[in-house]
Design goal:
The structure is a single chain. The protein is of the alpha/beta class and about 325 residues long. It has a single domain (about 15-325), classed as Alpha-Beta Complex (Inosine-uridine Nucleoside N-ribohydrolase, Chain A). The chain is built from eleven helices and 13 strands. It has helices at about 25-35, 55-65, 90, 115-125, 135-145, 175-180, 180-190, 200, 220-240, 250-260, 305-325; strands at about 15-20, 40-45, 75, 110, 130, 155-160, 195, 205, 245, 265-270, 270, 285, 300-305. It has a nine-stranded mixed sheet, sandwiched between helices. α3 links the parallel β3 (about 75) and β4. α1 (about 25-35) runs parallel beside α10, α4 crosses α5 (about 135-145) and α5 packs across α7. Mean pLDDT is about 95; it is low at about 1-5.
Amino acid sequence: MVNKGGDKNRLPVPVVLDTDPGIDDAVALMLALASPGEIDLVGISTTGGNIGRQGVFENAHRLLQLFGRQNDFPVGFGWGEEKDTPAASHIHGADGMGETGLPLAGEPEKIPSVELLAQLVREHSGKLVMVAVGPLTNVAALLREYPDCKKNIARLVIMGGAVKMSGNVTPAAEANIYKDPQAAAEVFSSGLPLQLVPLDATLKALFPPDRLVQFESLRSLQADFFRRLLRFHFRASRLALGVDGSYLHDALAVASLLAPQLLQFEPVHCVVETKGEWTRGMTLCDFRYGSKKRLQPNIEVAVGADGEKFIDLLCQRILIFLEKFEQ
């Protein structure tokens, strides 16, 4: 049984979410907000990915306003220039939020994501866990601009890559890594304590349409948003991927902080291809079992996951979270 309130003997871990909202990003944020016993969300840094930098920045604010958390922590605006790679509107909608028409009140202040990350690392020195569920542009820039931060980051959890299977944007590459392979290469070789949650694990995190039934009785704006978000994702996934359900890649990365036993991690050496004509963004891992030439591990990679237990945890946490908005 999932512990609804977390381990009472363990203090929540300070976490910053580096994200490009995004439908599964929105669900990942909801899961983090729904888990205060384990996660002390101290900030959100946005990065262009599923849609452009301005759009994902506004989406983060839209989500926080919807859930009444807009004054609780800062939101950073993505670093660098827009990447010349396709957006994922066919999966997330032109607005990144499943065409839900989520309103935005006011004009939020644009704090550069890298400055925000550096500030949070200093404030939570040695304790901060970073969860990066978009391109690694911000994280790489942080390590370049503020190299002293590296020794004070407790752990970086990354949703990205495909290590024993094909990618989802090209046969070689997963979308987050493909969009900024140079940034990913810098992060992978940085020496940070790293955990990678690739497609090998997240493709087991399929939210089936019949699990949405348990949310049908809720009548709040927040619950209605959640249902419409997933219904859009069901339709888009059926058309684009031929699957019946919603892959919640980013939420699984957050869930790894709540229930590490859901994933099977293996320490390996992993590099990112930055120049290949056909292999740009490929995450190449050394799985040469028994070989004396096997390279020293630099990352823990999730090679599998218990998708059913993950969906159980997700539904339980988000149902309790949404029930709080009922009148």
